[in-house]
Design brief:
Largest interface: A-B, 43 and 38 residues
CATH architecture of the largest domain in chain B: 3-Layer(aba) Sandwich
CATH superfamily of the largest domain in chain B: P-loop containing nucleotide triphosphate hydrolases
Shape of chain B: globular
Radius of gyration of chain A: 21 Å
Number of domains of chain A: 1
Shape of chain A: globular
Strand content of chain B: 15-25%
CATH topology of chain A: ABC transporter involved in vitamin B12 uptake, BtuC
Oligomer: heterodimer
Structural class of chain A: mainly alpha
CATH architecture of chain A: Orthogonal Bundle
Number of helices of chain B: 18
Number of strands of chain A: 2
Number of domains of chain B: 3
Number of helices of chain A: 14
Helix content of chain B: 25-40%
Strand content of chain A: under 5%
Order of helices and strands of chain A: HHHHHHHEEHHHHHHH
Helix content of chain A: over 70%
Distance between the termini of chain A: 20 Å
Radius of gyration of chain B: 25 Å
Amino acid sequence: MTAPTIEKSDVTKRLRAVGAAREFGILIALLLVILAATVANPNFLFSSDGWRDLLLTPSILVLLAVGQAIVIITRNVDLSVGSVLGLSAYLTGRLFIDLQGIPMVAVFLIVIVFGGLLGLVNGALVAFAKVPSLVITLGTLYAYRGINVLWTGSDRVNASDLPKEFLALGTGQILFIPILTIIALAVLVVAGWVMKNTRAGREFYAIGSDPAAAELYGLRVTRRLLTAFVLSGALAGLGGVLYAARYGTISSQAGSGWELDAVGAAVIGGVAIFGGSGTVWGAALGGVLLLTINRALPILGIPDFWQRAVVGVLIIGAIVLDRILAIRQKRKLLEAREDES
Amino acid sequence: MTDTPPSAAPPMLELSRVVKSFGAVIALRSGSLRLEAGSIHALVGENGAGKSTLVKIVAGLYRRDAGDFRLNGEEVDFTSTAQSKAAGIAVIYQEPTLFPDLSVTENVFMGRQPVGRFGRIDRKAMRREVEALFQRLAVRIDPDRPAEGLSIADQQVIEIAKAVSLDARVLIMDEPTAALSGVEVDRLFAIARSLRDEGRALLFISHRFDEVFDLCDTVTVMRDGAYISTTPIDETTPDELVRQMVGRDVTELFPKQEAVIGDPLLEVEGLSSAGVFHDISFTVRSGEIVGLAGLVGAGRSEVARAVFGVDGYDAGSVRLAGASVAKRDPAGAMRQGIALVPEDRRKQGLVLESSVARNLTLAIRTQLAKAGIITSGFENRAAKVWASRLEVKTTAMSTVAATLSGGNQQKVVLGKWLATEPQVLIIDEPTRGIDVGTKAEVHRLLSELAGRGMGILMISSELPEVLGMADRVLVMREGRITAEFERADATSENVMFAATHATGAHS
């Protein structure tokens, strides 16, 4: 019996469109925010500072959001990224101060590995002790911050302690694009490619989609979970170095609260909190939208204290939207099944 | 009990005298099985006969405690599903396990996608192979759609496609037809036969004898965790198989007391719920124990849940002592005097983290409260009464329920409901996972309760329990009551026959 080539069903086509629309929607929202802010104050976009801030501000968060997205896709969460970023930033400062003349590349490498190790601690606790990542990383959020406070004390690293060429990295541009943005974009492109096109990437989705099935399939769940947390930690480490380069001043509170922005970015960007769906691109766009709204609201004349609330509305709105889309998709698929039989 | 099946050339897969226990519970006493290439083998047995345990050992989910396990004559010992898969064994479970968010194609290839440069997955090759595979199996499922929302039949086909693309030599199907319609079963069988003709070994686990006789070449019977027999299918009959499945002593264990059977208490009429159960009517009288027998998945627990009001139903009525019981109102059902001891006591019956006292008084907490406050004094006093009546073995009322043995947990759940002083007790699998001694105690207790005029509806998959305890036996099969026997007429053979035998072809 020869069946003709199986065609894409209408449902599949429609679903694909919806999936793309989810990220496209964030992009539209972002453009609208930029448009509104620019109309209110043309300097928001059309000044060299405005343009630079637009790209520069979200760059570090994009790194965290990418890491967070990978972890959330595996049905976990990493709340320690803010603390990892803080510790990494301070370590960056200390390396430059204590080892005068250390090459920049070495600092990058050391700190990224350091962040990865902190992530490994999270991953090991989650994968081997089988404790929910929410609890584990909430613990390490405080623990890492505590170590940071202990280490830094009331001390802090100042811009004057750091090499000039390192600080130049934080504000420098190549062809009107900030270097930090280029780094973030590069990471995003690589992460997006890996998540879409490699076994490791697809297995992250599989594990988050159904952990029990992943075991039955014989996937190496433990190893993948470790990888996800190490990646998240390493990206937070990289974020720490860039934080040092951008701000120059590093106290023991650097990066405090960023973990929430990172989770928020992923959720706004359509990464399902129960794992298995969403993309790092969406999370990155979510991060950009989050911070851009924060900067646009004062320009639009919305008082300070409303800003957090707007972010909250955005997150809840995104979750409700995802839920509605998921329910509709399920119904469509069921209807299609009824039609066939 | 004989030993292993007769031997010839090394079979594709051979298990002999395999043992597996979980703590004190022995799931498999002596499991033996031989699968030959190019043959479809059936494995039959009652619920709890050890079939699933055997399959899980083959799949690498469990490790055997003792016994031989050979593949093509070579000793193997799997510690993970990945190993058994690598050895060419594919298992298709009753409930397929797919990744709902991922596409059908990805589901087929997960973990072993064809990769090119830089580890890039070759989507085109994957897609091509899936289409070829689906053509070969003559199925039409859009390979790009997500697995979410696929019918169980289609999900199974995907599992089979996965197994074929793995080039699995041994294919195990654990009750694959349980959720399928007639057409879907035919399609599945056609695929199974073509796989057999390619020289693979298939194992088919089923409760439906018509299917076993239709599809399989040989059949192995298991009972009570042990191998009973292996026979070519032409040399046996359904009656013979049933006899081998149930043949054991049914006497002794259960000290059933005679009780005076009185007026009807629980009257269920024409209860139907689309796709779950149909036209269920029965009566439970005071002092009577009614056994509800049937296979797992026949819809017995669902009926119990509907009667108690946990789930809704589409048609029919429930009356208790003449008064109608509201739909979807468990609290009302409790007030009227119905109690339901659920099947899964750890999940549905107990608050595992709480103390014995709290668990025992959970269902009567409103009566216990004074001005909305329950002191531990009230709680302990009320709980002690029941703990001693049921002989719950625990050192203190404050012991956490999770630490009790299965039998004592069951007593606590029972006590919790008996404290509400019900007229009718619905009890679902009263002795599952309980040691023999406690089992007898639970039975004594049920018998005693009936003696005091309580009406009891007992759902049980264990035939001896049903036959030993029940005054009347109802048998359900695929959502319908297919037979009713008085105590004197109920035998393991006729109950089992009613539970398994499709009158006519599969519907």
